[in-house]
Design a protein that fits this description.
By secondary structure, the chain is mainly α. Among the domains are: about 85-215, no CATH class; about 220-280, no CATH class; about 295-305 and about 310-465, no CATH class; about 565-630, no CATH class. About 60% of the residues lie in helices and about 0% in strands. The protein is built from 50 helices and no strands. Helix 1 (about 5-15) crosses helix 48 (about 700-710) and helix 23 runs parallel beside helix 25 (about 345-355). The longest helix is centred in the last third of the chain and has 16 residues, at about 550-565.
């Protein structure tokens, strides 16, 4: 993140661009280079000026600006075409000094720029550039200099990187050395580290011919058959591939599986080549679904490759052949696993079996159990293939099939089906099948409301599945959970806030399961924070109740306290007490009586801070939240407190100097309508921090600033120079800065 001073300068420059960049750069070089290196946007005319090469430092900064190039691919392309010393130094210095960063320059692009200049190019007279190339780069581009024809560079790379250079790069380096340093230098290198593929006797033409031969299609096909070759590493040395020749060789004799994967993983692999090589996933991803259905084998692999994609032809096949017939689906379950032919042939086979009535009665429901809850989400090929077919059926058919599916199929459909239908929860709850409900509970996509309904069943298998799979528990989940084991899991994962919600948990546990488990429950800790799930005061209270001789009386006492606290009157009393002591209770996890609280607030308002915190609760109605959003948060900062007390806005802004990274209160007042951009530009200070408040989401503020910058600075270099020079230390407001610069230049001797 670039600093507020730089953000402020960018805000001015974007508002109205100066007319004379050379003069401005001469006076504010450091500021503008910092901007050019870090800002995600720059004025168009500044970029154009940098690309002329007149300011090497500025050009180097832009070449180093990853964010800008991501936003402006055209700028990246022009820098690549430029390939000058400033650009190369930015690329190479980033590579050597910022290990682990995501580079904005690809290895191929760096090689392209380094291969372009000849041996005697003036580019190589730059000592810093040569030092970077021969100093041993640390990251992505450390082998790129093998193509460089600057004296000494390719030789240094060959020596330093010999062990990791492939044959192609070694031959590249030797050819570059021959051109840059002479054949004797090549001979010396080979004496140190031999490359058997290098031709003998040595000469430049022979080296180039050897390199061309090694990169030829004939050589590629030979190496793809070699046992000691890693296909992925080999293919990196080939910028282009003759796919027709590769596929013809594969049809003659199939390549190994890892070789096919490496070939089809290349971005330039054509759909025709992928089909010929038999990589079903690549063809499916390319959208050639008819080929996958008609030609890909075996059918289960083809179906797996089509998973997650809606295909009309497959949907029609499923509807016509399988429909909602459980027998047909059972037959498909068996045949899809063992069929060696295509999907089309599989459906032809099923059509014949359905017509002949040759349908199995297995696998039956419950015969094969579902996988354990909370396990890996990856599917076996057969299960993934069957799920593709189930997803191709209509929602009504899928729902009708659920009770007759085997365990893995039902689990896959409910937890990983492409189209999740929330209404199925109602149907399955009404059906009451524990196996299906357990599968449903293992679905990470369940809504909070669905989790609550499943939790309320108090079925051990369902509760276990919920605890095994789910991570993002709502605080009220522990309050509403009837199962002790699941409740314990939740209490160790999240904090439940508030005395009454915590007591409700313990009361519910006592009423449902007796008091025997309470001593262990009140000692639970939340795993992530290590803090107790229950406060010391609650633990003492419950321990006292547990020690009571009359269990019924102790339970009644706890119940009375909880019911009183959960009532509307109890919650109002809690908020009134908090208002008197300015205590935050809105973050507590109550089941708030919103209508009663709103009526009470309108009768006699709660303290602003207490009411505001209350409306941050996720379930707060919009009308309550709207009341709070317009508040001046006088409890947050002194400035907001003074504004709430009626102090004039101009006086508040004048009295409080803005601090970098602490301007949230300005934005709050702007959002609440208590402050305008005219107020900020006129009164907020210092100017650099006030201008840094502007973001892309402030079109009104940017438009207003542009009007003032145009009026006060125009395109005059002197005025701009003075404004940017004063900006870092200027203590007044943005408008005062602009007017001061205008007046000072206008009053200077010799001013027009």
């Amino acid at each position: 993140m670039y600093e507020p001073g730089s953000k402020a300068a960018l805000a001015l420059l974007e508002a109205a661009e100066p007319g004379d960049w050379p003069r401005l750069i001469a006076s504010r070089r450091e500021m503008l280079i910092a901007l050019a290196q870090q800002a995600p946007r720059l004025p168009r005319t500044l970029i154009e000026h940098a690309l002329t090469g007149a300011e090497p430092g500025l050009l180097r900064a832009i070449a180093d600006n990853t964010a800008l190039q991501a936003e402006r691919p055209d700028v990246h392309g022009r820098l690549l075409a430029d390939g000058s010393a400033p650009v190369l130094k930015a690329v190479l210095y980033r590579d050597s000094s910022r290990y682990g960063e995501q580079p904005c320059w690809s290895h191929a692009e760096v090689r392209e720029m380094l291969a372009r200049p000849g041996r005697d190019d003036p580019l190589w007279s730059d000592p810093e550039l040569v030092r970077l190339l021969t100093g041993g780069l640390h990251y992505t581009h450390h082998t790129a200099p093998v193509v460089c024809r600057a004296p000494g560079v390719a030789a240094a790379t060959y020596r330093a990187r010999y062990d990791i250079l492939g044959t192609t790069d070694r031959l590249h380096a030797l050819a570059s050395v021959a051109e840059a340093d002479g054949i004797d230098a090549v001979a010396a290198l080979l004496a140190e580290h031999d490359t058997p593929e290098a031709p003998r006797p040595l000469d430049l033409a022979s080296l180039r011919a050897a390199l061309e031969e090694f990169q030829s299609t004939r050589s590629l096909l030979t190496h793809l058959r070699a046992r000691d070759i890693v296909p992925g590493h080999l293919l990196r040395h080939y910028a282009t591939i003759d796919w027709a020749a590769v596929t013809a060789e594969h049809l003659r004799k199939k390549f190994a599986k890892e070789t096919v994967t490496a070939l089809t993983s290349r971005p330039d692999c054509t759909a025709e080549a992928a089909r010929a090589l038999g990589d079903i996933a690549v063809v499916a991803a390319a959208g050639d679904h008819d080929w996958v259905i008609d030609h890909a084998v075996p059918a289960k692999n083809a179906l797996k490759a089509l998973r997650g994609t809606r295909i009309e032809r497959l949907e029609q096949l499923v509807a016509d052949v399988l429909g909602d017939d459980p027998g047909a689906w059972r037959a498909m379950r068996v045949e899809a696993t063992r069929h060696k032919g295509t999907i089309a042939e599989l459906f032809t086979l099923l059509t014949a079996r359905v017509t002949a009535g040759d349908l199995p009665d297995r696998p039956r429901p419950g015969e094969v159990p579902p996988p354990p809850a909370g396990g890996r989400l990856s599917l076996k090929i057969a299960d993934a293939a069957y799920l593709t077919l189930l997803d191709a059926a209509t929602p009504d058919v899928r729902l009708a099939l659920l009770p007759v599916l085997d365990g893995p199929a039902a689990h896959a459909l409910l937890t990983q089906g492409h189209e999740r239908i929330p209404e199925w929860t109602d149907v399955l709850l009404a059906l009451g099948d524990v196996t299906l409900l357990t599968c449903l509970a293992d679905d990470r996509r369940l809504s909070a409301e669905e989790v609550t309904r499943l939790m309320a069943l108090d079925v051990p298998e369902v509760s276990h599945a919920l605890g095994a799979r789910h991570r993002d528990w709502a605080p009220r989940s522990a309050v509403n959970c009837p199962d002790t084991g699941l409740r314990t899991v939740i209490l160790t994962k999240i904090h439940v806030r508030g005395e009454i919600p915590r007591l409700r948990i313990l009361l519910d546990e006592w009423e449902r399961h007796g008091r025997e488990g309470l001593p262990a429950m009140i000692k639970l800790t939340v795993a992530q924070s290590g803090l107790p799930a229950f406060t010391a005061a609650i633990r003492r209270r419950v321990e006292g109740l547990l020690a009571h001789d009359d269990e019924a009386a102790a339970l009644a006492e706890l119940r009375a306290r909880v019911l009183d606290g959960e009532s509307a009157a109890g919650q109002i009393a809690l908020l009134r007490k908090a208002s008197a002591k300015y205590k935050t209770v809105g973050i507590e996890h109550h089941d708030w009586h919103w209508a009663d609280l709103l009526a009470e607030h309108r009768r006699e308002p709660f303290a602003d801070q207490v009411f505001f915190d209350l409306t941050r609760a996720p379930a707060c109605p919009d009308d309550l939240r709207a009341l709070a959003d317009g508040m001046v948060r006088h409890w947050e900062t002194d400035a907001e407190a003074e504004l709430a007390d009626g102090k004039p806005l101009a006086d508040v802004l004048a009295a409080h100097t803005l601090i970098d990274q602490q301007t949230q209160w300005i934005r709050r007042l702007l959002r609440g309508g208590h402050l305008t951009w005219t107020d900020v530009l006129t009164h907020a200070r210092p100017a650099k921090t006030a201008l840094a408040v502007l973001t892309d989401d402030d079109p009104e503020g940017r438009k207003l600033l542009a009007e003032h910058v145009t009026a006060e600075l125009g395109t005059a270099a002197d005025t701009w120079q003075l404004a940017l020079t004063m900006l870092p230390e200027f203590t007044g407001s943005p408008l005062e800065l602009l007017r001061t610069a205008n007046l000072a230049v206008g009053a200077a001797p010799g001013a027009a």
